[in-house]
Specification:
Blueprint lengths: L2 H11 L3 E5 L4 H12 L3 E6 L6 H13 L5 H4 E5 L5 H8 L7 E4 L6 H6 L1 H21 L4 E7 L26 H20 L2 E7 L1 E3 L12 H10 L5 E3 L5 E2 L1 E3 H12 L1 H4 L2 H4 L9 E4 L5 E2 H14 L10 E3 L14 H7 L7 H13 L1
Helix pairs in contact: 2-3, 2-10, 5-7, 7-8, 9-13, 9-15
This protein binds nicotinamide-adenine-dinucleotide.
Amino acid sequence: MSTIESVHQSLRERPRTWLITGVAGFIGSHLAEHLLALGQRVVGVDNFDTGKRDNLDALVRGAVGRGACEVEAHFEFRELDVRDPEALRQACARFDGVEHVLHHAAVASVPRTLAEPETAHSVNVDGMFNLLEAARACGAKSVVHATSSAVYGDCPGAPETGAQSEAIIGRPLSPYAGQKRIAEVLGQTWSTTHGMSVVGLRYFNIVGPRQDPNGAYAAVIPKWIDTLARGEQPVIFGDGLTTRDFCPVEDVVQANLLASTWHERADADARAMPGDPSEGVFNVGLGGRLTLLELFELLRDGMADRGVDCRAMQPRHEDFRAGDIRHSRADVSRARELLGYEPAMPLDTSLRATMEFLAG
Ligand SMILES: NC(=O)c1ccc[n+]([C@@H]2O[C@H](COP(=O)([O-])OP(=O)(O)OC[C@H]3O[C@@H](n4cnc5c(N)ncnc54)[C@H](O)[C@@H]3O)[C@@H](O)[C@H]2O)c1
């Protein structure tokens, strides 16, 4: 039995209570859907900054579709802001206290953290502090928080493969990167000073249904699918040779479950990484590398196969965006070895599901 299968089994045998921040967003809604399907109790919180009520309905439908029972009794949504410590503390006290916290609420766009520095800092840094304190007050056993490959900044990665491994990071190239790094350090500090299990998951570029295609700060995949569906030309910032490690959201769910239960499989000594500035931090990606031009061709051909008249479409190039990293690729060996992470969802399946979701 794989590690994730045994985690699923133990969660089914002893259902727990989970707090998910950012539950109305892309990744948060998938986490809630999977946990409800495993019979867990979920307290979901969000302030609808970028999150959608539709995602709450979709996660409930998805959970029921996956065989979840009594979803009304097991899922509680609270509209709150992670900048409000008291509201977070109350949410953590639900169902006799949450055992696991998955912190995903954030200002999650690089350009927006440049355009709205105060809001971004207070949500991404103060929100993390509030969350850690709320988790500590309710005696939560674990906190997993979403950090980002943006933390690697100008670190070129390994000479042969360009893959980034956790212990070596570069300078942050945006407020977003700096704030995610601060959040990692806060997590490590609460872990060493309060003995909590706090794990940071450095997501690379996550793919799947429910990622928002609209607005100035939309992620590239949903935005391009939406643009192609309207018969318009997607914009590539730069020459298109920028590379990314695109990773299906199902693998992110897997990584969260493994990280949340890590302390049950490894004691504090086994989890310690003395002298490593990235202790308790894990890359979550596929370990692959796709140029933006290759991604464009995959999406264009996929949409053309779905009947959109775009087979000959070419992208429009604009200047590079401030704060964007040139190449990013995950070395996932630490997550594999210590957490038992095994990416399982093929990228093209995930891209097809995303096209299906957005373009019908
Ligand atoms: N999607 C990716 O490729 C990716 C990559 C790296 C890191 N991440 C991180 O993963 C997490 C989830 O990202 P996502 O793609 O699902 O983004 P998202 O924008 O879809 O979800 C973020 C959610 O947080 C909520 N939120 C924002 N500010 C809040 C506040 N003050 N109080 C309560 N809720 C608030 C939003 O309304 C939204 O529902 C974020 O922390 C993001 O930085 C995502």
